[in-house]
Design goal:
Layout (H helix, E strand, L loop, with lengths): L1 H11 L12 H10 L1 H16 L1 H16 L4 H29 L6 H17 L1 H17 L9 H14 L18 H33 L1
Helix pairs in contact: 1-3, 2-6, 3-5, 4-5, 5-6, 5-7, 7-8, 8-9
Protein name: DUF4386 domain-containing protein
Keywords: Membrane, Transmembrane, Transmembrane helix
Length: about 220
């Protein structure tokens, strides 16, 4: 999922590094005119890969449910956060797609506004990710089973990911600098830790399922 999304977003749509929020409208419009077809293909791939996050998030919910011994506050919170996260990941892609659909037939300011909506939404949804990280951390710290679902170090990892993702919440405030949507604290560091979290979470969940099957078999 993350490989397809990254390839669609960064490689196909050519949106890495991000367009600067301080760029003038004419520059933004020219980018969409020059790259409109690639952006459309990139959006298509991103929409597909975002939907593929659903089963991954469902497994996380079920693992937390196992750690709680049934449906509880943590698993329900994780479920609601996951339910919000996937649409929040999909919807901004449509703004990007609209911006690239007829970029030469509208004003540069309108294309710039569509681009703004995309980036502010795309980066600003970190709140749902932070909630997911915190519920996973609590689940890791409170699981008292002989074979815990999540190791304690994974709980600390989630706390670090949540902390380092916080700057994404303020992208609506800054037009430039490290806290803007293309800044090191709002984009690059959260993006890096998210990738680390995705691969680590996959490994932790697979190991947990393997151990559970071995014990039940």
């Amino acid at each position: 999922m993350i490989i397809l999304y990254g390839a669609s977003f960064s490689g196909v749509a050519q949106l890495f590094p991000p367009l600067s929020p301080a760029a003038p409208a004419d520059e933004i419009a020219a980018f969409f005119v020059d790259h409109k077809l690639w952006i459309r293909f990139g959006v298509s791939g991103a929409l597909l890969s975002a939907a593929l996050a659903l089963p991954f998030l469902a497994v996380i919910v079920m693992r937390i449910k196992r750690a709680e011994g049934g449906w509880g506050m943590l698993s329900m919170t994780q479920l609601m956060a996951a339910t919000v996260f996937v649409p929040a990941l999909i919807f901004p892609q449509f703004f990007l797609g609209v911006a690239a659909f007829r970029p030469e037939g509208r004003s540069a300011e309108l294309t710039q506004a569509l681009n703004d909506v995309f980036w502010l939404w795309f980066i600003g949804i970190v709140g749902t990710i932070i909630v997911q990280n915190i519920t996973l951390a609590i689940a890791a710290f409170t699981d008292q089973a002989d074979t815990p679902t999540f190791p304690r170090w994974y709980g600390y990892l989630n706390l670090w990911v949540a902390t380092l993702s916080l700057p994404g919440c303020v992208v609506v405030v800054f037009n430039d600098g490290p806290l803007a949507w293309n800044g090191v604290f709002a984009f690059y560091i959260p993006g890096l830790v998210l990738v680390i979290w995705l691969f680590t979470t996959t490994a932790v969940i697979l190991k947990s399922i393997t151990v559970e099957r071995a014990l039940s078999g």
